[in-house]
Amino acid sequence: MRLVTPFVAVLLASASVPAFATDKATGPAPRAQGWLVKSYGEVEMPAAAATAPQAAELKKIAVTRSPGDMAKLQWWSVGGPAYRWNEILLDQMQEAFVTLPTSARHLALFQAALDDATAVARAQRKGATGPSEYAAAAAAAAEVMAYFFPAKAAQFAAKAEEAVKVRLAAGADQAQDAATGRAIGQRIGALAVAYGKADGSDAKWTGSVPEGADKWKGTNPIAPMAGTWKAWVLTANNEFRPAPPPALESEKLGKDLAELKEFKRSPRSNHRATFWEVNGGARAHTMWNDIAREKLLEYGYTPAVAARVLTAVNVALLDAGIACWDAKFTFWYPRPTMVDAELKSVFPPPNHPSYPAAHGCFSTAAAVVLAGVFPQDKERLLAIGKEAAEARLWAGIHYRFDIDAGQEIGRKVAEKTLARSFDSRGL
Known about the structure:
The chain has 427 residues and is mainly α. The protein has helices at 48-61, 69-77, 83-96, 102-123, 133-148, 153-169, 175-197, 251-262, 267-282, 284-299, 303-331, 336-339, 358-373, 378-394, 400-421.
């Protein structure tokens, strides 16, 4: 299904997207700065003696090569060490129905661990020898996924073992390199789990929904504490908090309500609104990660760049969500149908306050990050993000000022994420 249609005009090429040092063979240059470690050298390579027993066991695998091992090697190797694990986690979250903003939190932490694990392993390699990046990624992935879904820890460990054994059986890694890579991944995975346990995502809401005509009405709002979670690039969770929304008696609110009433719905607009209700809401993280992986293969970027791109897009999704929820549960602004009973939405709005629009926050953040690292697709990516935001007005569940505020948050978070993730030297 095409994500961009003639129904949405492509954004102007002059839209604000940072430019990065890019080479067609390698991609933008990641900053030599870890997410969970301050420097890649602070994680010492395990001594050979410490990993010798593992290496001895792994060495036995090299003589059990089968005709199918090369096909398995190709599957695991596509896109670099972080690529397949991104896909695997997305499938697991879909099965468990983990949705935004929690899904963004999981993905950001997971990709940060894989980014650091592979970077540490890479930094300690000497020529063709040294820790295996693939073993490091597999071990880190298993550690973090077991933290997210403890009942499946054994399953994830087996998947990681498969990823390591395939490379050994195919002769792509040496036993000692796999053992040291695995040890590095386990250490980084442990750091990620410690970070996750302290990020505030398990905090329970003990507040109450405020009363008043200018307040959202409902019970059990979605993730009211998400605005307090630990962010990756925001200096403070309210760093990009927008100005207060219009008063109920204001001219601005009247104008935006009139726009909603005058909008002429059509089968096409209802279709796009419904499409984005799913793919920009509960599954937005899946859609944007799928696009990121697709473009990584098309552009042929190096494994190091691929790991950093997957981290950047998910950090931006999370921090945009944190900033969005900070504002939503500061202002508690009512949905359009709560203000004007004559308005009818295409479908019920999500169970959280209106201002700012979450679709604008999430999809703008993801679109701007990806537009910054895939310059030949800049206009298309920005148009996808714009349609995701605009579709909420077509559905009748957001005011224009909700969308504008959400897009501004998403853009600012994305720009900060790009600056943190890559060296900016111009294309």
